[in-house]
């Protein structure tokens, strides 16, 4: 695990003190990339900055993307944290052990939601995998900075060559495409699927979110993303140019590029 290719994204944090304490935790573990989507007011207040002791450079240099999609667009592996247990959720230790293989030569983004509610379902759907910190069911709630520190600590162990548990997964030599490219392909597929009536115009995300999950698990390469976008263009053309077939009517014409 190369910590230089790891970034943390905080989405709508509500308390500046927690953001500042998270900065100190990241600095302790050697992670220097931070993005804050919709940061809270008061990050410049002395009481908040005091909690970021020694990590003011990280706090001041934090990126301020407008959306989660923008924040993770350049990452090849996006891990969304959740306080809710899920059958498919990874532990921080598994992320540290297998994350390097999944991200390839790209970047890992670890995403944290707001303190009270965590990431919304639509935001978790933008992540390639879910990370859950096992805690005592009697008191499972963790402070944001605590959660950041726990995950960053396991990543630090992996970076130092200390076994974090589990065998690193093997993958093909081809690198997975960044999350932003995957979302662009999904934008193309959404429109194409709408044009042929495959998606409901009133609620396209109901099915499209399942496609997002399928493709995220597959980890498509840049070439495969290109193939998906080409498919979407052909489907869109078919949906707008080919009339419903009628008996004896075979004058629909060829699809451009078809059969290639």
Ordered list of secondary-structure elements with their pairings:
Elements: E1 6-11, H1 16-29, E2 33-37, H2 46-51, H3 56-61, H4 68-71, E3 77-81, H5 92-103, E4 108-112, H6 121-124, E5 129-131, H7 144-159, H8 179-195, H9 205-218, H10 222-241
Parallel strand pairs: 1-2, 1-4, 3-4, 3-5
Summarize the structure.
The chain has 260 residues and is α/β, with parallel strands linked by helices. Helices cover 43% and strands 9% of the residues.
Keywords:
Helicase, Ruva Protein, domain 3; about 10% strand
Unreliable sequence segments: 163-173, 246-260
Number of strands: 5
* Top-tier CATH class of the largest domain: Alpha Beta
The CATH superfamily of the largest domain appears as: SPOUT methyltransferase, trefoil knot domain
Secondary structure class reads alpha/beta
Number of domains: 2
Strand content: 5-15%
What is the gyration radius calculated from CA atoms? 21 Å
CATH architecture of the largest domain: 3-Layer(aba) Sandwich
Q: Under CATH, the topology of the largest domain is which?
A: Alpha/beta knot
């Amino acid at each position: 695990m190369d910590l230089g290719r790891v970034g943390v994204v905080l989405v709508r944090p509500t308390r500046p003190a927690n953001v500042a304490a998270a900065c100190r935790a990241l600095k302790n573990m050697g992670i220097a990339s931070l993005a804050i989507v919709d940061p809270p007011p008061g990050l410049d207040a002395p009481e908040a900055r005091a909690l970021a002791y020694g990590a003011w450079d990280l706090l001041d240099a934090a990126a301020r993307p407008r959306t989660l999609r923008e924040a993770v667009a350049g990452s090849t592996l996006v891990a969304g944290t959740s306080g809710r247990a899920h059958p498919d959720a990874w532990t921080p230790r598994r992320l540290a052990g297998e994350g390097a293989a999944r991200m390839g030569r790209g970047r890992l983004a670890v995403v944290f939601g707001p303190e009270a509610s965590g990431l919304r379902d639509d935001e978790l759907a933008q992540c390639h995998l879910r990370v859950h910190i096992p805690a005592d069911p009697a008191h499972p709630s963790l402070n944001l900075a605590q959660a950041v520190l726990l995950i960053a600590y396991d990543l630090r162990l992996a970076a130092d060559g200390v076994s974090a548990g589990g065998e690193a997964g093997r993958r093909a030599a081809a690198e997975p495409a960044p999350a932003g490219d995957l979302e662009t392909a999904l934008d193309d597929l959404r429109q194409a699927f709408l044009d042929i009536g495959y998606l409901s115009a009133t609620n396209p995300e109901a099915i499209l979110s399942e496609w997002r999950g399928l493709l995220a698990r597959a980890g498509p390469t840049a070439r495969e993303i290109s193939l998906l976008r080409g498919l979407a263009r052909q489907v869109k053309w078919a949906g707008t140019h080919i009339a419903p077939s009628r008996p004896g009517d075979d004058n629909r014409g060829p699809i451009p590029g078809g059969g290639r």
